[in-house]
Automatic annotation (TrEMBL):
GO BP field: L-histidine catabolic process to glutamate and formamide; L-histidine catabolic process to glutamate and formate
Annotated source species: Candidatus Saganbacteria bacterium CG08_land_8_20_14_0_20_45_16
Compartments in which it is found: Cytoplasm
Protein name: glutamate formimidoyltransferase
Gene name of the record: ftcD
GO MF term (any one): folic acid binding
Formiminotransferase C-terminal subdomain domain: residues covered: 183-297
Length: 297
């Protein structure tokens, strides 16, 4: 459990996602590049072929850590060789910043600084999303990432798809989305079935875009290494829709399709206010540790 103390008046969480989740030696080498911020969680998934790193620190320290991680990932990975179930547009796909106890305007400036540095020093084109989006339609990450890397290769020079900073695609690293957002809870529910249509149908039924739960994004994914499927969920506003509510909805639809929920998992850290009594049992969490809880006091 990490406690953000009152004297930590400028604390920022950063959650870079990079496109490698199978070669754990490579993952370790990329994460080892982080020297200026505290890494609290590293979650790698072989089917998603993706790693999510959660780190916390002061604004400049976290910005430097995000730059250093991106540089190392660009040195070791090639997006043209990447394959994975999760949508992606670059070797470092997205770098979100969360103002834990730091003024939003300062974090917005931080993101602009990082975007310029990634282009000027690494020739990595940048899209701004979330609260830092320069275009209203780019506030939502799925819009920025729509069609993934392969479609972006075809559309990068269309005016509405051109990066906010830089141009074209980096030959081996693609592009990156950098933004400021509120806490997001990444939550996966594993189903005892190989029928991908069922996972996709449940995802469609629960996501806001299709008329489901407010603040919920969801995808149906095959976990080929385990012979099961998964409903991969991003809970963008846990105050509007709780973890308990979203799990209950998945459970209802699973029962409708006569499919068993094997387990669930939380990726990275979650704010204390999203935790509830008996959560691990209720959500059928495969693993959960106190270090995944971020407490702001």
């Amino acid at each position: 459990m990490f406690r953000a103390q009152p004297q930590m008046n400028k604390l920022v969480e950063c959650v870079p996602n990079f496109s490698e989740g199978r070669d754990l030696a490579l993952v370790d080498e990329i994460v080892a590049a982080v020297k200026t911020a505290k890494v609290f969680n590293v979650h790698s998934d072989p089917d998603h072929n993706r790693t999510v790193v959660t780190m916390v620190g002061g604004p400049q320290e976290v910005k430097q850590a995000a730059f250093d991680l991106t540089l190392r990932a660009m040195q070791l990975l090639n997006i043209r060789e990447h394959e994975g179930e999760h949508p992606y547009i670059g070797v470092v796909d997205v770098i979100p910043f969360v103002p834990v106890s730091c003024p939003l305007p300062e974090v917005l400036c931080l993101v602009r600084e990082l975007g310029e540095e990634l282009w000027q020093k690494l020739a990595l084109p940048v899209y701004y999303y979330g609260e830092s989006a320069l275009k209203p339609e780019r506030k939502e990450l799925p819009f920025v990432r729509r069609g993934g890397y392969h479609l972006l290769c075809q559309e990068i020079n269309i005016p509405e798809r051109q990066p906010d900073v830089g141009h074209d695609l980096h030959f081996s690293a693609g592009v990156v989305a950098v933004g400021v957002r509120d806490f997001l809870i990444a939550f996966n529910v594993n189903l005892k079935t190989t029928d991908l249509d069922i996972a996709k149908s449940i995802a469609k039924n629960i996501r806001e875009k299709s008329g489901g739960l407010k603040g919920v994004r969801a995808l149906g994914i095959s976990l080929l290494s385990r012979g099961i499927t998964q409903v991969s969920i991003n809970l963008c506003d846990h105050r509007m829709t709780s973890l308990k509510k979203v799990f209950a909805e998945v459970k209802n639809w699973a029962q409708e399709y006569q499919v068993e929920i094997l387990e669930s998992e939380l990726v990275g850290m979650i704010p204390q206010e999203a935790v509830f009594e008996g959560m691990a049992d209720y959500l059928k969490l495969a693993s959960f540790i106190d270090k995944q809880i971020l407490v702001v006091v």
